[in-house]
């Protein structure tokens, strides 16, 4: 059955999957959502026999119904290949009573690689399918990881250019170095004076700027997005939850029919929304544990039904979660309002205007699949040290937030169900915070000495992504005010 896509805010007709991927954001500022969540109508015992690539095809062809099987297979083969440093693509590691789903074995050592390795191929295939003759300009805001993963995915891809905005002082030194050393004639990286929400808001404003769209079209350009607002980012993320469940089934860690819990460190809400979509497809997930850092806007929302971004923005050691406007939550809001686009648009207008909105009591009851909690900076550091001292396994700061919140969930509920924790970044990406958490003495070392020491104590080889930037020259040094983003993009495109 064909899956069509429409805006969460209702303007415009249904579009195909390939059209939604090409456009990224709907013209009315809404996000594209499927008209129904397809059923995972294949026995999980069959999926358990499959490779990651084979599972990806089974899941993705149910959502991206206007792509042929051959087109999807081609995209998958190009995406999940030797750029990943493990054949499994997403290994599961058992540690301290949970299963850590390592999503950081791709080219930029963060979970964003899982989707951004395939998005360029989906997008160029979609362009051909829709006879798009304009050059696609990927416009992206990043809180640290999406930027580099998108840059790596789109670098020198014919028919595309990519512009990435990041908060100048809001990412880790390794994250920044990964971005500013990015090669590719079609790449452009800009630091802004502001936080991630400023960058994300600025990008959304550019997407909805009709005058700019007309100027770009005249010069042969059109915008698209590599952020998780693009449905082509979200669908590939569903795959690894299905794969993780089936791996547990294959290894007889769970029995057929048994449910698991999933814990996700959450900022923009895309990764946990993918788990929710997997559950809605029929994957036996019981509880979705939404883990926040000190920027706990989602924890407060899940508890109160009030989403309020009017608060202090806190820079933490888990910067990819330093977000107060969780864009992908809009897709869940649309669902719990009964797919009411007008109500969703009103709530998003309130968020944009007053910085807050409140859902109804009945709508809040529909959030029962989720449990929310948060871990502050001390709890995050303590969790890194606890796991390391207990079993020698080293986790990054974002994974530590999830792990600490899982411990809180377990203490609150006593739920012993098998649990998968999304491990979203390599500890090497946040080496200083990780090593300082293990022992304060490490803080005196420089960044790359810390990398080598982390490799030694964790008994893990330094990832290629880190080795590459030790001596790489800085190729992008542009910094601007948030009000200058439009002028900067036009300058890069020569319009």
Helix count from the secondary structure assignment? 22
Question: Mean pLDDT across all residues, rounded?
Answer: 96
Under CATH, the topology of the domain at 92-109 and 232-460 can be stated as: Rossmann fold
Query: What is the level-2 CATH architecture name of the domain at 92-109 and 232-460?
Result: 3-Layer(aba) Sandwich
Ranges with pLDDT <50 over ≥5 residues? none
Class from helix and strand fractions:
alpha/beta
- The top-level CATH class of the domain at 92-109 and 232-460 is Alpha Beta
Task: Walk across the major sheet and give the strand order.
Answer: 3-4-14-9-10-13
Radius of gyration: 21 Å
Strand content: 15-25%
Helix amount, in percent? Answer: 40-55%
Q: How is the main sheet built?
A: 6 strands, mixed
For the record, give the distance between the C-alpha atoms at the N and C termini, rounded to a whole number.
43 Å
Number of strands: 15
Shape: globular
SSE layout:
Blueprint: E1 5-7, H1 17-23, E2 32-34, H2 44-47, H3 52-63, H4 69-79, E3 92-95, E4 98-102, H5 112-116, H6 119-129, E5 135-141, H7 145-154, E6 160-167, H8 173-180, E7 187-193, H9 196-207, H10 210-218, E8 221-224, H11 231-250, E9 260-265, H12 270-281, E10 285-292, H13 297-304, E11 306-308, H14 329-336, H15 341-353, E12 356-358, H16 361-365, E13 370-374, H17 377-391, H18 397-413, E14 419-423, H19 431-438, H20 447-458, H21 464-469, E15 478-481, H22 485-493
Parallel strand pairs: 4-14, 5-6, 5-8, 6-7, 7-15, 9-10, 9-14, 10-13
Antiparallel strand pairs: 1-2, 3-4, 11-12
Helix pairs in contact: 1-6, 3-4, 3-11, 4-6, 11-12, 17-18, 17-19
């Amino acid at each position: 059955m064909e899956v069509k896509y429409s805006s969460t805010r209702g303007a415009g007709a249904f579009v195909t999957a390939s059209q939604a991927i090409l456009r990224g954001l709907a013209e009315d500022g809404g996000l594209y959502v499927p008209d129904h969540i397809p059923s995972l109508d294949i026995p999980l015992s069959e999926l358990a026999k499959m490779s990651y690539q084979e599972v990806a095809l089974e899941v993705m062809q149910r959502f991206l119904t206007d792509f042929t099987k051959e087109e999807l297979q081609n995209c998958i083969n190009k995406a999940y290949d030797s750029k990943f440093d493990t054949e499994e693509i997403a290994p599961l590691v058992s540690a301290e009573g949970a299963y850590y789903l390592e999503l950081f074995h791709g080219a930029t050592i963060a979970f964003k690689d899982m989707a951004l390795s395939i998005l360029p191929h989906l997008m160029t295939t979609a362009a051909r399918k829709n006879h798009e003759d304009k050059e696609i300009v990927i416009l992206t805001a990043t809180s640290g990881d999406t930027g580099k993963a998108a840059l790596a995915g789109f670098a020198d891809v014919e028919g595309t250019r990519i512009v990435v905005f990041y908060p100048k002082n809001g990412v880790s030194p390794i994250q920044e170095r990964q971005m500013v050393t990015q090669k590719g004639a079609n790449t452009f990286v800009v630091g802004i004076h502001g936080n991630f929400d400023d960058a994300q808001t600025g990008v959304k404003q550019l997407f909805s700027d009709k005058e700019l769209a007309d100027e770009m079209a005249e010069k042969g350009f059109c915008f698209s997005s590599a952020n998780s607002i693009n449905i082509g980012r979200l669908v590939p993320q569903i795959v690894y939850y299905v794969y993780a469940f089936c791996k547990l089934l294959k290894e007889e860690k769970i029995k057929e029919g048994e449910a698991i819990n999933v814990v996700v460190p959450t900022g923009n809400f895309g990764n946990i929304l993918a788990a929710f979509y997997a559950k809605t497809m029929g994957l036996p997930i019981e509880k979705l544990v939404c883990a926040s850092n000190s920027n706990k806007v989602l924890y407060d929302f899940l508890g109160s039904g009030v989403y309020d971004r009017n608060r202090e923005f806190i820079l933490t050691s888990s910067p990819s979660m330093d977000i107060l406007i969780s864009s992908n939550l809009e897709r869940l809001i649309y669902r719990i309002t009964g797919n009411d686009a007008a109500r969703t648009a009103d709530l998003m207008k309130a968020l944009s205007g007053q910085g807050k909105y409140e859902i109804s009591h009945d709508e809040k009851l529909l959030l029962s699949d989720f449990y929310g909690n948060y871990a502050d900076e001390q709890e995050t550091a303590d969790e890194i040290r606890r796991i390391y001292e207990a079993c020698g396994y080293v986790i990054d700061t974002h994974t530590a937030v999830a792990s600490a919140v899982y411990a809180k969930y377990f203490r609150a509920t006593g739920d012993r169900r098998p649990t998968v924790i999304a491990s979203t970044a390599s500890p090497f990406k946040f080496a200083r915070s990780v090593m300082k958490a293990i022992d304060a003495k490490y803080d005196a070392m420089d960044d790359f000495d810390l990398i080598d020491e982390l490799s030694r104590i964790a008994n893990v080889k330094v990832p290629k992504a880190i080795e590459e930037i030790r001596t790489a020259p800085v190729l992008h040094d542009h910094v601007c005010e948030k009000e200058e983003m439009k002028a900067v993009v036009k300058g890069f495109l020569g319009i």
